[in-house]
Amino acid sequence: MEKFIKPFPKVLRIEPASSCNFQCIHCPTGLNLNESLGIMTEKTFNQIFDQIKNYRFEVIVLYHGGEPFLNKRFFDMVKKLKPLTKRLRTTTNGSLLDDEIIEKLLDIEFDEIDISMDGNSPEENNLIRIGADYDKISKRVIQLIKLRNKRNLKVPKITIANAQIPTDADTDSKATVPKHMIETFKEIQNDIEFSPFYTIQWPGMPEKYDVTKKPKGNFCDHTVSTFSIRWNGDVVPCCYDLINMMVMGNVLHEKIEDIWNNEKYIKLRKDIDEFNPPDLCKNCLVLQGIKHARTNSFT
Q1: Among candidates 226, 180, 182, 247, which has minimal Cα distance to 61?
Q2: DSSP 8-class letter at 145
Q3: Buried b / exposed e across 61-96, counting CB within 10 Å, b at 16+?
Q4: DSSP alpha helices (H): ranges in the chain?
Q5: Would you list the DSSP string of 206-230?
Q6: How many CB atoms lie within 10 A of CB 195?
Q7: The dihedral of CA 278, 280, 283, 286: what is its sign?
Q8: pLDDT (tens digit, 9 = 90+) per residue, 149-173?
Q9: d(Cα 148, Cα 32) in Å, to the nearest integer?
Q10: Is the Cα torsion angle 164, 166, 171, 177 positive or negative in sign?
C-alpha cells in the first residue's frame, strides 16, 4: 500500500461558500441535489489557516462549488493566504462584480479569475445559468479589465470559462469559442482568455457511461495533487464532489496530514489504480479520459 501514500500536495482548494445565487441546470447545486450548503465562518477559516500557515503552495483556489463572493470575508481570507502561495485563483459567476469588489480585486492584486459564462449565445447562457444576465456580467468583466489596464497591472488574469452542452458526450470534436463572445469582448480581446469546454458529468447525476468497461484514462491527479476543503471543514477528493459523496475527514477535528494519507484516501487511490472506482468516480469525465473535459485542477 506504500505506493498509494503521497506527499502533501501543492494545490489547495478552500471553499468560501457552497451556497450560490444561481440555479444552473448542469450543476448539482442548481438542481437542488446539494444538501451541504453554507458560508465558511471566520472561526472555521482561522482553524484551517492555523493548520496550513507553515505550508507553501503553488496555487490556492478559493472556490469549490458555490459563489465565493457571497462570503463577506472573502478578501480577509485573501490577505492571509496570499503569502502562502505563488498564485491565488477563484471562479465566479460574475453577478457580484460590483464597483467595490472590482476595486478590492485590483487593490490586492488578485492573481487569476475564471468567470463562468456558458452556452453558444447570450440567450442560452441565461437559460443554462438561471439567474444570470449575460449583458450585465459581460459589461462588468470589461470594466474590470479596463480598470486593471488603467492601473498598469498585469493581474488579475481573466479567463471566460464557457461550458457547452454537447449533443453527444463522447464527441471527439473540440469545443470552440462562440462567435457572440468574440464580438462581446472584441475591444479587450488581447486582455482576456477563453476556455470553452463540454459540460462535465457531475457526481450524483444520471449515468452516461458503461462503467463496466475500463475507461481510457483510469487515472485522477486530483487524488494525488489537490487537497480540497469545503466550507464546513469537510475534505473531499476533488472539485467535482459538490454533494459530499466521499468525505475523507474534517480539518476541524483532524490534522490535514493525517487526512491526506488516511485509510480512505489510500483505498481511493488503490481502487482507481485497480479499476474499482467508487460511485463518485464512475461517471467522471476525468477518469473516463474524455479529451476535452475541463478538469479545473489549476496545476
Answers
A1: 226
A2: H
A3: bbbbbbbbbbbeebbebbeebeebbebbbbbbbbbb
A4: 42-52, 74-81, 99-107, 122-128, 134-150, 179-184, 222-225, 256-260, 263-273, 279-282, 285-288
A5: ---S-TTSPPS----THHHHEEEE-
A6: 15
A7: negative
A8: 999 999 999 999 999 987 665 456 7
A9: 37
A10: negative
Task: Give the span between the Cα atoms of 181 and 162, in whole angstroms.
Answer: 9
Report the distance separating Cα 24 and Cα 38, nearest Å. Answer: 17
Kindly report the number of other CB atoms within 10 A of residue 175's CB atom. 19
Q: Cα(195)–Cα(161) distance, rounded to whole angstroms?
A: 5
125 vs 133: CA distance, rounded Å: 8
Whether 262 has a pLDDT exceeding 90, the answer reads: yes
Round the CA-based radius of gyration of the chain to a whole number and report it: 19
Instruction: Say if residue 79's pLDDT is above 60.
Output: yes
- 136 Cα distance to chain centroid: 23
179, three cell numbers: 462567435
pLDDT in tens, 181-207: 999 999 998 999 999 988 765 655 555
Are 178 and 131 contacting, i.e. CB atoms less than 8 angstroms apart? no
Tell me if 281 sits within 8 A of 220, measured CB to CB. yes
Predicted confidence band of residue 54 (pLDDT cuts 50, 70, 90)? very high
C-alpha cell at position 180: 457572440
Pair 197, 4: CB distance under 8 Å: no
- C-alpha 245/C-alpha 112 separation (Å) is 29
